[in-house]
Amino acid sequence: MDVEINPIDKIVGEAKMPGDKSISHRLVMIGSIAKAKTVAKNFLSGDDCLRTVEAFKKMGVEIKIAGDKLTIKGVGFNGLEKPDTELYLGNSGTSMRLLAGILAGQNFETVLTGDESLTKRPMKRIIEPLKKMGAELSSIKNDGCPPLKMKGSRLKGIAYKMPIASAQVKSCILLAGLYANGKTSVEEPFQSRDHTERMLKLFGAKIESRNRITQVLPGQPLLGKEIIIPGDISSAVFFIVLGLILPGSKIKIVDVGINPTRSAIIEVLKRMGADIRIDRRTDAFEPMCDLTVSSSSLKSTIVIEEEVPQIIDEIPALCVAAAYADGVTEIRGAGELRVKETDRISSMLENLRQLGVSISVKGITILVEGKRKRISPAKKATGEVILNSFGDHRTAMAMCVAAASSDSICKIKDVACINTSFPDFFDVFNYLKK
Ligand code: S3P
């Protein structure tokens, strides 16, 4: 499905975001291996999380979705059943990496696979530590990518120093650690999102984190909970950026997650001069707040490597903001963007250049030269401006924002992928645009 986006003047109004994708995945996984019932409100029924739901249903877990309410009848640590087919996880790296941690400790064999993009994503980063724990798993094509064949085994706890900061890898090891013999600890080079740690603690696991080292003990039973999933800040960022760059805009995004390991994007944008107000902050197991965003004159900034894991999913939107910030914005240490759903460095370069933005890459630093006027595609005189999502949800939404802020009608190819994380994106866009 392609979409045509017309330039818009501004966005105004109030909106609520779909549930956080990372938290929704974890809720299904941890709720399934907990005892008793788990109920969640504001569950994200996007394609990725539904893959996780389907996988656990195939392993015998009763899961019901009614609107945005999700109910799971937990089966306990050892209650999962061998699925009768391979587990197809679509486009979802989070499903695959976290699920592999849980499956490493089961007493049955499984195959994890996915779509064209997922079967090209690096899995050595989980294969190596899981093997150290005694898991039997391999990349079937021997290329370090899915499909993965897993045979559950008796695991032993390890102390693992992660070479890259990745919440998915950290979570995989911690979840496997629940099934291990003895303590498991993980040290990351930079802090990544801590949703797994928070949720495991809430459900009753023995887990502690200090100075980027997290340790978990096996054997403590998990107990189902009732929770409200905050709105996804990685979805909110598209409207935050649009509100900042379109003069006269003012929007309020309610009940959005503001976990300190996810909110660095607000700090980066504020450093660029963004007018973003935080109200009604509540500190449940995952902090939530309302964000009020007013259009602002942005200036460039330097994002350092340490910040990148905490804004990793917001970088496509940040590149669009940088196109409107006076000066050259540098995003350093952005190499992980090359191994997301698509190579997001290449797709930002290709698309934003089409829109007349001066963007380049030096090693693993992205450089964007911003101007305080509507971006203007060079090609418009010769014909249609065509942008491409390359099948990547975040690229698709970032390009909708860029196109709406430009001075031309743009066609964006292949936007059905937006269903991965934000099924109502166009409804919210149409409601806010003025
Ligand atoms: C996620 C972690 C991030 C992020 C992904 C979701 C998670 O990946 O890009 O969209 O839910 O743990 P990495 O941890 O591999 O960087």
Helix content: 25-40%
Distinct small molecules: shikimate-3-phosphate
What's the CATH first level of the largest domain?
Alpha Beta
Q: Output mean pLDDT.
A: 97
CATH architecture term of the largest domain: Alpha-beta prism
- Please state the overall shape, judged from the principal axes of the Cα atoms: globular
Largest sheet: 5 strands, mixed
Give the strand tally.
26
CATH topology of the largest domain: UDP-n-acetylglucosamine1-carboxyvinyl-transferase, Chain
| Rg (CA only) | 21 Å
What does this structure look like?
The structure is a single chain. The protein has two domains: 3-18 and 230-432, UDP-n-acetylglucosamine1-carboxyvinyl-transferase, Chain (Alpha-beta prism), CATH 3.65.10; 21-228, Enolpyruvate transferase domain (UDP-n-acetylglucosamine1-carboxyvinyl-transferase, Chain), CATH 3.65.10.10. It has helices spanning 21-33, 47-58, 93-103, 124-132, 167-177, 195-203, 233-245, 264-271, 308-311, 315-322, 344-354, 393-405, 425-432; strands at 3-5, 12-16, 35-41, 62-66, 69-75, 87-88, 109-113, 136-139, 148-151, 155-156, 159-161, 180-181, 184-187, 206-210, 213-217, 226-228, 250-257, 275-282, 288-294, 298-299, 302-303, 325-331, 358-362, 365-370, 385-388, 410-413. It is of the alpha/beta class and 434 residues long. The protein is globular. The longest helix is centred in the first third of the chain and has 13 residues, at 21-33. It is built from 13 helices and 26 strands. α1 (21-33) runs parallel beside α3 (93-103) and α1 packs parallel to α6. β23 and β24 (365-370) form a beta hairpin. The protein binds shikimate-3-phosphate. Shikimate-3-phosphate is lined by residues 22, 94, 166-168, 171, 192-193, 312-313, 336.
